[in-house]
Design a protein that fits this description.
Strands 1-2 form a two-stranded antiparallel sheet. A hairpin with an 8-residue loop joins strand 1 and strand 2. It has a single domain, classed as Winged helix-like DNA-binding domain superfamily/Winged helix DNA-binding domain (Arc Repressor Mutant, subunit A). The chain is globular, with a radius of gyration of 11 Å. Helices cover 39% and strands 8% of the residues. The chain has three helices and two strands.
Length: 74
């Protein structure tokens, strides 16, 4: 799997980036939850439903949007 930086998150409505926030990591919009946490948890076998339970604030819609974006990224 490619790195988060390679996925081109700019313009993705589900995420945001603040160079001063959370060490400059991409996070789910309106949260401090790093997008990387989604991919790390999925790799560990966590389902989307479990992910949003573990990380309240992130929604299944945001997670699906990120997964779709990752799959469509060149």
């Amino acid at each position: 799997m490619r790195s988060q930086a390679d996925l081109g998150w700019a313009g993705c409505a589900a995420v945001e980036w603040d160079p001063l926030g959370l060490s400059g990591a991409w996070v789910f919009r309106g949260t401090r939850i790093p997008v990387a946490a989604l991919f790390e948890n999925l790799e560990d076998g966590v389902s989307l439903a479990e992910f949003v339970e573990i990380f309240p604030g992130a929604t299944q819609e945001q997670a699906r949007f990120c997964l779709t974006r990752a799959l469509q990224s060149p």
